[in-house]
Amino acid sequence: MWKIFVTLVENFPNMRSRQITELLGGVKIVGKSKDLTDLAQAGLPKQALIFFLKKSNLDERRLYAYLDVTKRALDNYKPHEKLRLYVSDRLIHLAELYAKGKELFDSFDHFNEWLNRPSVDLEGVHPIDLIQSRTGVDQLLTLLGRIEHGILV
Fold first, then answer.
1. Cα torsion for 97, 98, 101, 105, to the nearest 10°?
2. What is the pLDDT of residues 122-133, one digit of tens each?
3. Which of 4, 37, 40, 136 would bridge with 89, disulfide CB 3.0–4.6 Å?
């Protein structure tokens, strides 16, 4: 019994990393990496951003605003060219939010629907409006954790 628990605990971060990596295009696009920190430091290819945008169905303008980069600047990147550390790190953070959302709501469509509705937990604010800063995304991750465990306001 104890051995099963230890194996589960040791592999849990890998399961979450795998979900996030898949949301960024999987091994085919981002390659193999020991962890998400290494992936951010190496820089994600532009293709990962395009894959995430299609998969998440997030509004382009909101994504670019969160990444603090212009569409024009991203258009200058070649498909396999690596994004800066700052942009890669923020994209991974956003992918973490969407991976957690898909896990809880069973699909990106249902998660996006939740993001675009006023939230009682946020005093009527639409959760999508918090995707402006890293702090806002952290607040949403905390809220999703509370929802997952059935903790209400």
1. 180
2. 999 999 999 999
3. 40
